[in-house]
Structures are given as C-alpha cells and as structure tokens.
Amino acid sequence: xxxxxxxxxxxxxxxxxxxxxxxxxxxxxxxxxxxxxxxxxxxxxxxxxxxxxxxxxxxxxxxxxxxxxxxxxxxxxxxxxxxxxxxxxxxxxxxxxxxxxxxxxxxxxxxxxxxxxxxxxxxxxxxxxxxxxxxxxxxxxxxxxxxxx
Length: 149
Known about the structure:
This protein folds into 2 domains: about 110 residues, no CATH class; about 35 residues. About 65% of the residues lie in helices and about 0% in strands. The protein contains 7 helices and no strands.
C-alpha cells in the first residue's frame, strides 16, 4: 500500500469517526427541528410558516426536511445552521454525530466583534509594536556603545 493510499484511508477513518459511518445525516435535520421547537417556545418567528418565508421554501418541503423523509437541500440546511448559530447554538453540536462532549450552546459570545473595536485593538497593538521597536533600537545603540568602550 502506497503512502498516499495509507493517508487516504486514515483520513477516511477519521472522517467517519468525526461525522457518520453509514451516510445517514438525518440526525442533523432532527437536531435542527429540535432547536426550532426550543426557539419557538420564546419567539413565534420560528413557526414553520415564518421560517419557510425566511428560507424561501414551501411548507411541504419544510415538513419533509424536518421529518427526514426526503434528502434536504444542503443550502437550506446551511441556512438553518447559520440562523441557529446566530441564536447562540454551537454548529459543531449540530453537525457532529457523537456530540456528547460538545456544548450545545456557544458559551462565550465575546468573540463577536464590531469594526470599531477591532480598529481600536489594532491601533493599540501597532502603538505597542512601535514602542517595542524604539526600545529595541535604543538597546542596540547602547549595546554598540558598550562594545566600543
């Protein structure tokens, strides 16, 4: 067996462990359905007729999607995952078949940044880098002076 064949087989095994072995991805749509039902308790926006408008699909298609009776259009599934991620759900909890040790909700939303906070942080970092460069140059000059004397 060639080295590339071994790498391919190893990656295939890792992917099967990470995702699914039998090709069954219905667990994803069932999780999406369960999340929608959780969100529906607090917001009527997540009623089926409203989400079909948001997603641009028919009610019939949505019913089939949530029941797992028909292969879901990947675009719709991705839209739902993105929507639920915006609501704080962890996309890895949705996608990973064996998700027992994956947090369902994303705990720290402090990584959501706006442009101004990024600019402020970047300017502060650049200022600190400039100060560090100046100190380094001063230290080099002092070092050169000490060598000469």
